[in-house]
Design brief:
Layout lengths: L11 H8 L5 E3 L2 E3 L6 E6 L4 E7 L3 H17 L7 H17 L1 H12 L3 H24 L3 E4 L4 E9 L2 E5 L5 H14 L3 E5 L6 H13 L6 E3 L4 H9 L6 E5 L2 H14 L3 E4 L4 E5 L5 H13 L9 E7 H16 L19 H16 L3 E4 L2 E2 L10 E2 L1 E4 L5 H4 L6 E7 L2 H8 L7 E5 L3 H10 L4 E4 L18 E2 L6 H6 L1 E9 L1
Parallel strand pairs: 7-8, 7-10, 8-9, 10-11, 12-13, 12-19, 13-18, 17-18, 19-20
Antiparallel strand pairs: 1-2, 3-4, 5-6, 6-22, 11-21, 14-17, 15-16
Bound molecules: nicotinamide-adenine-dinucleotide.
Nicotinamide-adenine-dinucleotide (NAD) binds next to α8 and α9.
């Protein structure tokens, strides 16, 4: 049977949603087309077919969206609603998303080239995150009395107002959940700029929010091009708090725009994580886990382990085990059940990965597993085979974020050298250490300079554990924990002399 024949059938609701294009933005509770009628196309990376046309918002349109969010903040009652009443509405939204999980997951899978089961996991993660913050917000004291002599004093937490969010294409729905849930639970209103490659799930979500009764203007979605709609949102003086997830290059622009307006900004940026593998590991198990990590969403994961640092005594055995496993990874269409790794998101990403493989080898890296374009029967998409390079960590492929199914191998002699190699990077998002010696695991985990260290695992995101980057990987606070909810309240002190 061909790959196409084994693919899940497109659901009628998905077909209907896609065919209703050009799809409009969602602003102030209504569909909104771009003021100049401009549209852009979003494609299925597994077939290069156009999925839908979407209106590309212009700066004036983004201005209307921020005003709609400000209006909803000031007048809809959302910001002043009792936390439990707001909680009811947010739980209704979580329930509605969960009920439509299959539909949203299929939309996401088609749009991002994401394996269907993983897209379902992302949608469920959205639901869980929304419920997590909604419940937490019920129990956070808004007023806290302070014990000071001669005064009555307290602090009070207020929502900020309209908050802006700019997202990348790799985890559209999941990242929307991680970022807007605390903002909404705290009583803010939001303007979401999805990536131009994956605008669909955010539009679908905004419509659902209206359906379940969130006041108009609480969730606004402004699809469009980054340098137009994204830049207009980042530089809008009416935005009270900004959150950007994406590349360090664009993060700098967003940070500068927010700096100009003195708007607090959270930047969640790229990474070049290391996995440090000591000789006392179970080689087969560790190789399996790291192969799963680098092939998960075709390696388009910011916190992936892309530098595999392996102790010399097991290096050859480990490399052989990984290469054998990577050769067996089933590359295929994202809706096909047997596929383990789908396409990369677009032509630019496809060429970027191939370019790094070429430049890495030109700079002297050894090609352990060649990678390159993969053939998928019956599909003309952006498919790549996993690749392994090895050599000096000064190589371009070891230094820069590739964002594809490519791992870079290097050997170390001892713990000190391993830590130095892991820290030989401008990034600081996530690393892992693999060893059966838990004392060493703790030492190495804490010595690696990054926002996140994992032990005998990679890519772990339990709700309640802060997730953020340092250095070139981000600033301004993280996501996924209680601190994130607190970020979405502006603090105020009130003092009265006695
Ligand atoms: P990108 O920076 O190119 O784009 C991200 C978003 O910014 C898109 O919505 C885009 O339209 C918008 N944008 C582009 N130019 C803009 C401008 N001038 N002003 C304002 N907005 C603009 O990133 P990408 O290619 O979509 O995503 C990949 C990157 O995201 C990688 O570096 C990856 O590591 C990073 N990422 C980080 C995290 C994290 O949590 N740290 C999570 C996912 C992805």
């Amino acid at each position: 049977m061909s790959t196409a024949e084994q693919s899940a059938a497109i659901l009628p609701e998905v077909r209907q949603f896609l065919q209703a294009g050009p799809l409009a933005a969602f602003v102030g509770g209504c569909d909104m087309v771009s003021s100049n009628g401009e549209v852009f196309q979003t494609c299925d990376p597994g077939s290069k077919q156009v999925l839908a046309e979407v209106y590309a918002l212009q700066p004036d349109d983004v201005d209307r969206a921020v005003r709609a969010a400000a209006e909803a903040f000031a007048r809809s009652g959302w910001a002043r609603m009792a936390p439990n009443d707001r909680g009811v509405l947010l739980h209704r939204l979580a329930d509605a998303v969960e009920k439509r999980k299959k539909v949203i997951a299929q939309i996401e899978s088609l749009d991002a080239g994401k394996i269907l089961a993983q897209a379902e996991g992302d949608v469920q993660n959205f639901v869980d995150t929304l419920r997590y913050y909604t419940n937490m917000a019920l129990y956070v004291q808004r007023r806290s009395a302070l014990a000071v002599s001669g005064c009555e004093a307290w602090t009070v937490r207020h929502p900020w107002g309209p908050c802006g969010f700019i997202f990348p294409w790799n985890f559209p729905m999941l990242l929307v959940g991680w970022n807007i849930s605390p903002a909404l639970a705290a009583g803010n209103t939001v303007v979401i700029k999805p990536a131009e490659d994956t605008p669909l799930s955010a539009i679908y979500l905004a419509r659902l929010a209206k359906e379940v009764g969130l006041p108009d203007g609480v969730i606004n979605v402004v699809p469009g091009l980054g340098h137009v709609a994204g830049a207009a949102l980042a530089g809008h003086p009416g935005v009270k708090r900004m959150s950007f997830t994406g590349s360090p290059e664009v993060g700098r622009l967003v940070g500068a725009a927010c700096g100009k307006n003195l708007v607090p900004v959270k930047l969640e940026l790229g990474g070049k994580g290391a996995a440090v593998v000591f000789e006392d590991v179970n080689v087969r198990h560790t190789a399996r886990r790291l192969v799963e990590a680098i092939t998960f969403h075709s390696g388009q994961v910011c916190c992936d382990a892309t530098r595999w640092l392996v102790q010399k005594s097991i290096y050859e055995q480990f490399v052989e085990e990984c290469a054998n496993r990577l050769k067996k990874v089933q590359v295929g269409y994202q809706l096909a059940e047997q596929s383990q790794m789908g396409p990369v998101v677009n032509q630019k990403q496809f060429q970027r990965v191939l370019g790094y493989l070429q430049r890495g080898c030109q700079e002297g890296a050894q090609s352990v597993l060649e990678g390159g374009p993969a053939e998928v029967a019956g599909r003309d998409g952006y498919y790549l085979k996993p690749a392994l390079l090895a050599g000096s960590l000064d190589n371009v492929a070891a230094r820069e974020e590739i964002f594809g199914p490519v791992a870079y191998l290097a050997a170390f002699a001892d713990e000190e050298e391993a830590v130095a190699m892991a820290n030989h990077t401008d990034y600081g998002l996530a690393n892992s250490v693999w060893t059966s010696d838990l004392a060493r695991a703790q030492r190495v985990a804490e010595a690696m300079v990054a926002g996140n260290s994992w032990i005998n695992a990679h890519n772990l995101f339990p709700h309640g554990v802060p997730y953020a980057g340092v250095n070139k990987s981000g600033m301004g606070g993280g996501v996924l924990s209680a601190e994130t909810l607190l970020d979405y309240w502006r603090p105020q002190s009130v003092v009265r002399p006695l």
